[in-house]
Write a structure and sequence with these properties.
The complex is a heterodimer. By secondary structure, chain A is an all-alpha fold. Chain A has 14 helices and two strands. By secondary structure, chain B is an alpha/beta fold. The chains are: A mainly alpha, B alpha/beta.
Chain lengths: ~375, ~240
């Protein structure tokens, strides 16, 4: 098979004109194919239904993409700098969700307890109370997961650098431990926890929908997530460009021994990156709870999404930009599929991954072999 | 303190390979010490042993009369050692300026770094022009300048410079050596080089390393240049 591909490739390299023509043909075929798909979709859902579906999928997809991007950047950073494939990353994301859920409710009950002095701060101002609880829960989940991730690195993974098999076994082990503990406490994956159902005042600060008429109804919280995700991602980009530690991490992804030979404590940098990566997983897990709920089954599901996104984006020598666009591809395609082709919604990302790997074996920004 | 750096009978293994088989050498303060030898003789390993990347199984390394043998790399470097590695190893995805920022150690203040930058621009005026450029897009000669500049960001007492002329055209190599000779005013240098002719004027004393052992040492460079038998035997220079 490989032989055949090489022969075709050699032939195309020798004949740039044929290659050019083939390229145009493929582009035209893709456009026609996309057009046909749109035509079929319009026929099936009517024009109105089509527009509603597209806009809904767009909003939901963007919101999911942004949060997937934050989660996967954590995974990508840990892999890039420390060379560790963190199989427990999905479990960190799942636990982050539960942390967000628990911390939100705890904060809420502290502020609502009339016997405590905190009661006076908000009184019956539920909006301010809920916003505060949300911020506390997001930051709290980030901090807890950063401590857990940093702790796991400091006490266990630190001893296993240079031994990838042992790292994989260890992180897979942590994935199982965290998942089982979550199941013991919160029950099996059939149960999802949502803040609004468990809140004492049955209230969450962003609820309801934006109704643009004609069936164009968008959930406010998802619109909010797009902006939240974008701003955190923006902060992260600026941090990597402007701060010394951000530059050290980038340089370390290229050549960690050299960074150390320039006087940086690379071990400490590894721990910091583990904390940062796990914190990002915790953050995205926590802020997604009002949408997807906290669920002990999310660990495995989202670990697989993380793999898919990193592979599409370009794992080796890949860049953040690649991860960003591949998170967009994955998030959007999942949401479009779940609206227009529910039958393939669970496999669509793998189909896309296979297609991209055939065209660009190194992913979007990585180098191929 | 006469000797800035001293290696006493270092034995170094990489995996199961016995690379340095009892190396002893001294680097006198304020001088340029050359470490000469063929490919695979153990020159780069000696550098990495000093840096603690390959700590010796036996033997001692003493820097400024203080033993640094089993310290982690970053602690050794922070005592005032600058490293210019053999294949440059600049950070290609960062800009030249960011490469220099990453190299600043905590002990070097921002104002101190500004002074050092002036020195760097004085030695390598070209660098000022491509500060905002991605380091990966520079030519080989420019990358080598950056690799040297990176070691100058901090006020280092000792510079370990590994094969600076590797892969450079003769003219570029000559210019670089000229810049290095000006560095003598600021720091003590341990210079590894295969291209003996290019650096023979620079050295104050020399060690020839062969199969992980010191084969010859001395401080009379003109005598070494004349010793055709020795050069042919250890450095493969035939005249």
């Amino acid at each position: 098979m490989q032989r055949v591909t090489f022969t075709i490739k050699d032939y195309l390299d020798d004949n740039p004109r044929v290659k050019q023509i083939l390229k145009y043909c493929v582009s035209i075929a893709l456009i026609i194919g996309a057009g046909l798909l749109v035509k079929v979709a319009i026929d099936v859902y009517t024009w109105n239904g089509f527009i509603i579906g597209v806009s809904k999928s767009l909003v939901n997809g963007l919101a999911l993409s942004m949060l997937l991007f934050l989660m996967v950047s954590g995974f990508f950073l840990i892999f890039g700098l420390c060379g560790v494939i963190n199989f427990a990353h999905g479990a960190f994301f799942m636990l982050g969700g539960f942390m967000g859920f628990v911390i939100y409710l705890a904060t809420e009950s502290v502020f609502l307890d009339p016997t405590l002095p905190f009661f006076l701060i908000f009184g019956s101002n539920h909006l301010a109370l809920s916003i505060t609880a949300f911020i506390v829960s997001a930051l709290g989940a980030t901090a807890v997961m950063a401590l857990i991730g940093g702790g796991i690195e400091f006490f266990t993974i630190r001893r296993l650098y240079g031994n990838p098999i042992a790292q994989i076994l260890l992180t897979v082990g942590f994935m199982f431990i965290i998942t089982q503990v979550a199941e013991l406490i919160w029950g099996p994956p059939q149960i999802s926890y949502f803040i609004i159902n468990n809140s004492q005042i049955s209230y969450f600060f962003i609820s309801g929908t934006l109704d643009l008429g004609g069936g164009m109804i968008f959930v406010w919280y998802r619109i909010f997530l797009i902006f939240l995700g974008l701003s955190v991602a923006g902060l992260m980009f600026v941090g990597f460009r402007r701060t010394r530690i951000g530059l050290q991490i980038q340089a370390g992804i290229e050549d960690s021994e050299m960074v150390e030979a320039l006087g940086t404590n690379i071990r400490r940098l590894f721990t910091i990156v583990f904390m940062l990566g796990s914190g990002l997983a915790g953050f995205s897990g926590a802020v997604l709870v009002p949408w997807i709920g906290a669920n002990s089954g999310h660990g495995l599901t989202y670990l697989i999404y993380a793999f898919v996104i990193v592979v599409i984006g370009g794992a080796h020598y890949g860049r953040f930009e690649g991860t960003f666009f591949s998170a967009l591809i994955v998030g959007l395609s999942m949401q479009f599929a779940s609206y227009f082709a529910p039958g393939i919604k669970d496999v669509i990302v793998f189909i896309i991954m296979a297609a991209i790997l055939i065209l660009r074996p190194g992913g979007l920004t990585g180098h191929g072999q | 303190m006469k000797n800035l750096l001293e290696i006493q009978d270092a034995h170094v293994y990489i995996g199961s390979f016995y690379i340095l088989q009892g190396i002893s050498l001294v680097v006198p303060k304020g001088e340029v010490t050359l470490l000469l030898g063929r490919n695979g003789a153990g020159k780069t390993t000696t550098m990495k042993t000093i840096l603690g990347i390959y700590p010796p199984k036996e033997g001692k390394i003493i820097f400024r009369e203080e033993e640094i043998t089993n310290l982690p790399t970053h602690k050794i470097v922070n005592k005032g050692i600058g490293y210019v590695p053999d294949t440059r190893r600049i950070f290609g995805t960062l800009t030249v300026e960011q490469n220099l920022i990453v190299s600043r150690r905590k002990a070097t203040s921002h104002s101190e770094m500004q002074e050092r930058l002036e020195l760097i621009f004085d030695l390598f005026p070209d660098i000022r022009g491509f500060l905002k450029q991605k380091a990966g897009t520079l030519s080989g000669g420019q990358q080598q300048m950056l690799a040297v500049a990176r070691a100058l960001v901090n006020n280092n007492d000792l510079l370990l410079i590994d094969e600076p002329t590797e892969g450079l055209s003769p003219l570029l190599a000559k210019n670089l050596i000229a810049s290095l000779s000006r560095l003598k005013e600021f720091a003590t240098i341990l210079l590894v080089e295969q291209n003996f002719r290019a650096v023979s004027k620079l050295g104050d004393n020399y060690y020839i390393i062969d199969s992980g052992k010191i084969a010859h040492e001395g401080n009379n460079m003109s005598e070494l240049i004349e010793d055709k038998v020795l050069l042919a035997k250890y450095l493969g220079v035939s005249i």
